Amino acid sequence: MNAPDAGSVDATIFKDRNLFERFFSGIEHFRRITTRCDKLARNHAGLLKLVAALKCCA
Question: At 5, which helix (H) or strand (E)?
Fold first, then answer.
């Protein structure tokens, strides 16, 4: 098997990865972010920053 031993996984890396994955699964609820309805990349980036700020405050 290729599965690592339970003790070989670094706890801080696992915690950071979990936080990262939960953040992106949370922003998928915003339809505009998921489908990227904005024509310009700067508008999409601005909306992504707004959603990130809302998620951090909530």
Answer: none
